[in-house]
Specification:
- By secondary structure, this protein is an alpha/beta fold.
- It has 14 helices and 18 strands.
- Bound molecules: flavin-adenine dinucleotide (FAD).
- The site of flavin-adenine dinucleotide has 38 residues, from α1, α2 and α12.
């Protein structure tokens, strides 16, 4: 016993005796996306009990949202090694390693068969709403690491786990339109007139965009891809708004670009801007959004206070994604103040320094939080950095699962063999786009916003292959 600061007595807290020995509990994976399912494959190979909880009605529910988009990394970088071994043992044939699949092909040819292997160990329509430690809030320390995790589901059910691999992604928490990271005034009121990145403009969303005036906000490849798709529609007006003073960064280096597919995308975009097909607004800092009937007016106010505005029928907000750590708010997380990744990972993935091909291999040591046994992996682990690749996530979960299984030698032997740029792009992209008639191009959805320099006229050189 000791005196509390306010005159009350601080009580030494007895450790709580858990009902089940944590070692008998499963490892719970949150999210059945590419990385969550890869974690399951490694857990299965190591004979570890596990359960995958997936909010969507199908495995890879987030990938399904962008099924019409062709990815920019070929199959050989998109398949986890343990998953491949398990699938091949089940009679699966690997797709052409050089092919760039669409999101839909990723599911049908890889992720859906993989999820099927795990049977009822993948629980669909099961959303995790909160995680804590059984009987312990974030403050209580003594004996904390000896009690199981408590997982609350949105139906009210509670589960226990001995470790948590959180692969829940960032897809459902897109960045806002507002230029300072805060929502623009009235942004929520624009309702269904605002779409987030990569609507299926030439497919299921075609009618929504045909004959309309659309504003695309964002300077990454998601925005570029949407703009190029819109440019294929008739009877349409297209406005593109970026914060920078010039679109040179989005255009890339054209034929000289280190990433040929990015260069090709940029060259086509520049041609549309030069011809006036796409009207470019630079120095655009979305400040307020006002809906009037079926139209919406967006006012930009730049840091000097100068305003410009545009009135449109639709907005595509391609401003990137941010992680939502709220489900883990009762756990002890050590987050980088800028990116929202772990502090140890942040300097390795900083989009001001790295493209996705130059991110070094990393694993359990970089992903660990002060809360033992909780790991955020996959695109969520990168926070706001737009440099994530599936291949990086697969190495993360190989390392984390080895650690969870007690094999620290394997856990610390992290390796990643990515060509510096070739994984992110390929001139195959355009060729394949033409062969299959896809117009969505090569982009990735994490392409949108590297750490912005919110200065009029500034153009960031921050290199990320993804945006
Ligand atoms: C359009 C696009 C193109 C991309 N192209 C490439 C590419 O070419 N190459 C590449 O390497 N990477 C690419 N990426 C980046 C990245 O590899 C993908 O985003 C990938 O899907 C990330 O995998 P993940 O498993 O971490 O997360 P996700 O795929 O986002 O999966 C997360 C899963 O968790 C589920 N979930 C979310 N919240 C909960 C909850 N509370 N409870 C339970 N389940 C939950 C979701 O429903 C989802 O199924 C692309 C991304 C996008 C958006």
């Amino acid at each position: 016993m000791s005196d509390g600061c306010c005159g009350t007595t601080a009580v030494e807290i007895e450790p709580i005796v858990a009902h089940a020995a944590p070692s008998a509990l499963p490892v719970v994976v949150i999210g059945a996306g590419p990385v969550g399912l890869a974690a399951a494959a490694h857990l299965a190979e190591r004979g570890q009990e596990f359960l995958v909880l997936e909010a969507g009605e199908q495995a890879a529910a987030s990938v399904a949202q962008w099924g019409h988009v062709r990815v920019f990394s070929p199959w050989k970088f998109n398949i986890d090694a343990a998953a491949k071994r398990l699938l091949e043992a089940d009679g699966w044939s690997e797709p052409d390693p050089e092919w760039l699949p669409t999101g839909a092909e990723l599911i049908t040819d890889y992720l859906a068969p993989l999820a099927k292997l795990f049977g009822d160990k993948v629980r669909l329509s099961t959303k995790v709403t909160a995680i804590s430690r059984l009987g312990y809030d974030r403050v209580r320390t003594n004996g904390r690491e000896d009690v199981p995790f408590l997982i609350r589901l949105d139906g009210g059910e509670e589960l226990q786990a001995r470790a948590i691999i959180d692969a829940s992604g960032t897809y459902f928490t897109p960045n806002v339109l507002g230029a300072s990271g805060l929502p623009a005034y009235g942004e929520a009121g624009a309702g269904e007139l605002v779409d987030h990145a990569l609507p299926d403009v030439l497919g299921t969303d075609r009618e929504t965009y045909e004959g309309k005036h659309t504003l695309v906000v964002g300077a990454g490849h998601s925005a570029a891809t949407t703009l190029l798709a819109l440019a294929q529609l008739d009877d349409i007006q297209i406005t593109w708004a970026i914060r920078a003073g010039s679109a040179s960064r989005t255009y890339g280096g054209g034929a000289a670009d280190a990433l040929p597919a990015r260069g090709a995308l940029g060259t086509r975009l520049r041609a549309h801007v030069d011809s006036g097909r796409i009207q470019l607004l630079t120095g655009f800092f979305a400040h307020s959004v006002t809906r009037s009937g079926d139209q919406v007016t967006v006012v930009s106010r730049d840091p000097s206070g100068a305003e410009q505005s545009v009135t449109v029928d639709r907005i595509v907000s391609a401003t990137g994604y941010r992680p939502d750590h709220s489900i883990a708010s009762e756990l002890r997380l050590d987050l980088d103040p800028i990116l929202g990744s772990t502090r140890a990972l942040a300097p390795l993935i900083d989009p001001n320094q790295h493209s996705c091909g130059t991110v070094p291999a990393h694993g359990v040591d970089e992903l660990a939080h002060p809360e033992p046994g909780y790991y955020a992996v996959g695109v969520k682990s990168y926070g706001r950095a737009p440099t994530f690749l599936m291949a990086t996530g697969y190495e993360q979960v190989r390392s984390v699962v080895a650690a969870v299984a007690g094999d620290w030698e394997a856990a610390r032997d992290v390796q990643l063999d990515l060509p510096e740029t070739g994984v992110c792009s390929s001139n195959l992209a355009e060729a394949q786009e033409q062969r299959v008639g896809l117009a969505t191009g090569i982009s990735g959805g994490l392409l949108a916003t590297p750490l912005p320099l919110a200065t009029v006229g500034a153009s960031s050189d921050g290199g990320s292959c993804c945006g």
